[in-house]
Design brief:
Elements (H helix, E strand, L loop, with lengths): L2 H22 L7 E9 L5 E7 H22 L5 H27 L7 H23 L5 H26 L12 H9 L2 E2 L6 H4 L7 E2 L2 H21 L3 H19 L15 H19 L9 H7 L3 H18 L7 E3 L9
Antiparallel strand pairs: 1-2, 2-5, 3-4
Length: about 350
């Protein structure tokens, strides 16, 4: 498969998926997948544990990111087992960071921050790769590997924003609060969240209100950036793929805060997440200059072939289930369940 065809096919698949998602996910029924009975109370009802589409899309986006990293690194001859080890190391650092940074910045116990997790991963990433090269043998070139991780992140973040639409978090401002030059656009293209358990409803009092579709904009932009980065990568322009992908995604993360209405920590001119985004760009420019850029031929077919390996399939399935169990169990919503027998069916 040639590089252009691969990128075009991905664009078509994402475009079709997003078209459905943007129409459906703001609706009330797309927040809770299932409620599992846990404890029976004195009235005979069960207290339920809600499993959410937020967790479903987070698990899917994380697994997609890892799968894309396997394909891209496989395209330059990196075996899947090395990508497993790298992914495990990054997840071991970034998932705790997602909660710790959110607790420090936003002062909330039951929330995650992708921005904070990314920042920690960016800082640690080059040195994790170097440590793996020193301890496991072999050679994972730093810049191509970081470029693959950056592109995988962009894909994962793009799809991960669907989780935010489903839960109603990371929500945008009211249309009338948007910059005047953009209001006419958002009068035609906006989100209206339905359901009292959506975060935009219980935190922002925005149920039924037309708001800026910031999650959809981020999903589309990040996916387009990832597609462009993929093409640069497959053309062996690794440093360009790394810097372009991270600079574009983090600049948008910085600018998008202007259109967001959700709580982002203590009020100040710039949020902590905006500062992290800018620092990440500067840091990676330094890293790209510090490490030699290895020029290697790419073969996307070889990377795609790795996806059908039983070890890759099992790893991705376990990763999906693990992330779903971490993020899909709702800590901020509850349910009460009753069960009965249909008398006309016995």
């Amino acid at each position: 498969m040639n590089n252009e065809l691969f990128v075009i096919l991905l664009a078509v698949l994402f475009g079709s998926f997003f078209t459905w998602a943007f129409k459906s996910l703001p609706r009330e029924q797309w927040q809770i997948i299932a409620a599992v009975p846990m404890v029976k109370n004195t009235t005979g009802q069960w207290q339920g544990l809600n499993l959410t589409y937020y967790g479903f899309f987070q698990a899917t986006s994380n697994t997609l990111g890892v799968a894309m990293a396997i394909v891209l690194l496989g395209a330059i001859g990196i075996p899947a087992i090395r990508t497993f080890a790298l992914a495990a190391a990054l997840f071991a650092i970034c998932w705790p960071a997602a909660r710790i940074v959110a607790r420090v910045v936003e002062k909330k116990k039951y929330t995650f921050t992708i921005g904070g997790a990314l920042f920690v991963g960016v800082i640690a990433g080059p040195w994790i790769i170097q440590s793996m090269n020193a301890t496991l043998g072999g050679k994972m070139p730093v810049i191509p590997t970081l470029a693959a991780i950056a592109i995988a992140y962009a894909y994962g973040e793009g799809v991960g924003r669907l989780a935010c639409i489903s839960f109603g978090c990371c929500y945008g401002k009211k249309i009338e609060q948007a910059p005047p030059c953009l209001r006419r656009v958002f009068e035609s293209i906006h989100f209206v969240f339905a359901g009292a358990t959506k975060k935009a409803a219980y935190e922002g009092n925005l149920e039924g209100v037309c708001v800026v579709p910031i999650q959809a904009i981020t999903a589309v932009l990040f996916t387009l950036i990832a597609l462009a980065g993929t093409y640069l990568y497959l053309e062996s322009r690794f440093a360009a793929a790394l810097i372009a992908t991270m600079a574009a995604t983090q600049l948008w993360r910085f600018l998008s805060e202007i259109l967001r209405a959700d709580a982002r920590g203590k009020a100040r001119r710039f949020s902590a997440y905006q500062a992290m985004a800018l620092i990440a760009i500067v840091y990676l420019i330094f890293i790209a200059a510090f490490f030699d850029t290895v020029v290697a031929p790419t073969d996307v077919s070889a990377g795609l072939g790795l996806l059908w390996s039983p070890s890759v399939l099992i790893f991705c399935q376990r990763l999906w289930l693990t992330v779903f169990l971490i993020t899909g169990r709702s800590m901020v919503t509850g349910s009460t369940l009753t069960f009965f027998v249909h008398q006309d069916r016995v």
